[in-house]
Write a structure and sequence with these properties.
single chain; about 270 residues; alpha+beta; Jelly Rolls; six-stranded antiparallel beta sheet; about 40% helix; sequence-specific DNA binding; Helix-turn-helix protein; HTH_AraC; DNA-binding transcription factor activity
């Protein structure tokens, strides 16, 4: 199953944080045994995800699985929990009995809550116990219910956020830049955004590398193609590439290939 082209979310239960954590954590999710069986039965399956620059934690509640990050493949054992950045294409090779609990942060969210910068995570698979207390991970895995895991982890993250809570000019500027880009209809380039925010192109570039780990041009172009491709897949007959700043469909199709590595219609 491939992200955007197919609804991979149907295999999971989701919870979106509220309050202070909502600005830093996109969601908590957990494999649904019932929904997985409904859609894949007893077959092996894969989940392919495109770059998002979002630090993502995977707590393994089931058997071993394989994780491919770019051209490298890793075997994740049953007792192994990991953190990745998702700065490139990521693919999980799953058994129908797999069970994974996911925590997906927004760019900069890991730093805001735990004080951990995300650029050093580029192309890495990090053992989760180097980021979260091993005792917390074990408690989260031992409780029976999805809701209990969420309550336990949210309590920890809120406590950590209060300890690290301070105004960070870098994160604030990046968040404001992304918000301005989205409010513009995803059409402003980094130079135009810098003008809107009374900054220089050099400043905006330096801040994005500091917080996200990549240039504003690359990150914002990925944000745009995600939104555009999602709209295209949802209803290609009503899709207007101009609404997302593309000159024509050829321009859009080229961006799809650059982002996903495949042409529209080649999803498996």
């Amino acid at each position: 199953m491939t992200e955007i082209f197919e609804n991979i979310k149907k295999l999971y239960r989701f919870y979106a944080p509220t309050g202070e954590l909502a600005n830093f954590i996109e969601f908590f999710a957990e494999s649904s045994a019932e929904e997985t069986y409904r859609y894949v039965a007893d077959s092996r399956f894969t989940i392919k995800m495109f770059p998002s620059w979002t630090p993502t934690c995977y707590l393994n509640l089931g058997p071993p699985y394989q994780l491919a990050i770019g051209s490298k493949r890793y075997l994740i054992q049953a007792n192994t929990d990991v953190l990745i950045l998702r700065n490139t294409i990521v693919e999980r090779f799953n058994l129908p009995t797999d069970s994974i609990f996911t925590i997906k942060f927004y760019p900069g969210g890991l730093e805001a809550i735990l004080g951990i910068s995300q650029p050093p995570l580029i192309d890495q698979v990090v053992r989760l116990e180097t980021v979260l207390p091993a005792s917390l991970i074990q408690r989260a895995k031992q409780v029976d219910l999805f809701e209990q895991r969420i309550e336990l982890l949210q309590h920890f993250f809120l406590d950590q956020y209060q300890q690290h809570k301070k105004v960070n000019h870098y994160r604030t500027f990046v968040a404001d830049t992304i918000g301005t880009f989205e409010a513009s209809g995803l059409v402003l380039n980094p130079g135009q955004l810098a003008d809107r925010l009374f900054a220089t192109s050099r400043t905006i570039n330096r801040y994005f590398h500091r917080v996200v780990g990549t240039s504003p041009k690359q990150y914002l172009s990925q944000l745009r193609i995600r939104a555009a491709l999602s709209a295209y897949v949802a209803d290609k007959n009503r899709f207007a590439c101009e609404d997302y700043g593309y000159y024509d469909l050829s321009h859009f199709y080229k961006d799809v290939v650059k982002f996903t590595g495949q042409k529209v219609g080649q999803s498996r």
